[in-house]
Write a structure and sequence with these properties.
With 324 residues, this protein is an alpha/beta fold. It contains 14 helices and eight strands. The strands form two sheets. The chain has a six-stranded parallel beta sheet with strand order 4-3-5-2-6-7, with helices on both faces. A two-stranded antiparallel sheet has the order 1-8. Strand 3, helix 2 and strand 4 form a beta-alpha-beta unit. Helix 3 packs across helix 4, helix 10 crosses helix 13 and helix 11 packs across helix 12. The longest helix has 25 residues. The protein is globular, with a radius of gyration of 21 Å.
Length: 324
């Protein structure tokens, strides 16, 4: 009788921004012999590490990280591309006898693995480039207006449509004649679902907002202004897609003398908190009933030990199945 392991392929740690995912994932990786894959749509870009609160050198020194600071700011990085790359990362990590640990706050990235996205159609490269240039010049409100017109059902699943998601929806609608909602409903998935053991960090509103403000001040003290100035010097000024990440345009205004430091802090905290609220809502309703929810205010070491113990138990459990 063959032995079938009941342990999932990946260990997932989710939570809103500033909830402590990076520190917890690093400690768990140390305990279980893991490597971390960043499930964050912005930490993938070089030159944005401080402003996106990407894992710093102190985290990457002892635990290998994948999906952090490896793309140029102008490159496309959506859930589909992440899922394709992540499957390769997971296989590579497993081949070395290590544990793949996904950590992040971009829930759509994780869902693209556990509930794979559709197989995208081939798009004409020349027409796509022309469309991208047109979209880049449109104000975000116009992008949303076009998206609402061409894919009216999308807003019910994506309450907030940013430039990247809106642009992708418009590309599919205009270049294929079918909108994103149609493709998601009718096209076959591009891969098999990946099994996961998922932990979600939960934290009260007041405590999270305080963490957001404290982190914002640390980021400004830690070189965020220099980071933004370096981006601008390399051609990524206020109008660049790189500057659409939360806080970057406010830091640019601070560096340019348009606003004070306290005004920048207030604007960044406000926008980050709005984003965190959307994350908390998504994590309450979209991750399934089998997740394990824990209090982010608990001691990190104790949480990491509990997660590591659970992972080991799953590895120890097995079921015997009778062959034919």
């Amino acid at each position: 009788r063959p032995i079938v392991s009941l342990r999932p392929r990946i260990l997932v740690i989710l939570g809103p921004t500033a909830s402590g995912k990076t520190g917890l994932a690093t400690e768990v990786a140390r305990l279980v012999g893991g490597e971390i894959i960043s499930a964050d749509s912005r930490q993938a870009y070089r030159g944005l590490e401080i402003g996106t609160a990407a894992p710093g050198p102190e985290h990457r020194l002892h635990v290998p990280h994948h999906g952090v600071a490896f793309l140029e700011p102008g490159e496309r990085y959506g859930a589909g591309r992440f899922a394709r790359m992540c499957r390769d990362w997971v296989s590579d990590i497993e081949s070395r006898g290590r544990v793949p640990i996904l950590a992040g706050g971009t829930g759509f990235f994780v869902r693209a693995l556990t509930r794979p996205v559709f197989r995208e159609p081939e798009l004409d490269g020349r027409r796509r480039s022309c469309l991208e240039a047109w979209l880049a010049a449109l104000p975000i409100d116009e992008v949303r207006r076009w998206t609402d017109r061409l894919d009216p059902d999308l807003r019910t699943r994506l309450p907030v449509i940013d430039r990247q998601r809106g642009g992708r929806a418009l590309e599919l609608a205009l270049l294929t004649g079918r909108n994103l909602t149609w493709w998601q409903a009718h096209a076959p998935p591009e891969a098999e679902p990946m099994s996961a053991r998922t932990w979600v960090l939960e934290i009260g509103a007041d405590a999270l907002r305080q963490r957001i403000e404290e982190r914002t001040r640390r980021q400004l003290d830690g070189g965020w202004l220099d980071e933004v100035e370096a981006l601008a010097a390399s051609g990524h000024g206020p109008g660049s897609p790189a500057m659409t990440s939360i806080g970057f345009r406010d830091v640019w205004r601070l560096a340019s003398g348009e606003i004070s430091r306290e005004a920048a802090v207030a604007a960044i905290v406000r926008d980050t908190w709005r984003y965190a609220r959307r994350q908390r809502t998504w994590l309450r309703h979209q991750v399934g009933d089998d997740v394990i929810r824990v209090d982010a205010a608990e001691d990190v070491t104790a949480l990491a030990e509990a997660i590591a113990a659970d992972w080991r138990r799953l590895g120890d459990r097995s079921e015997a199945s009778h062959g034919p």
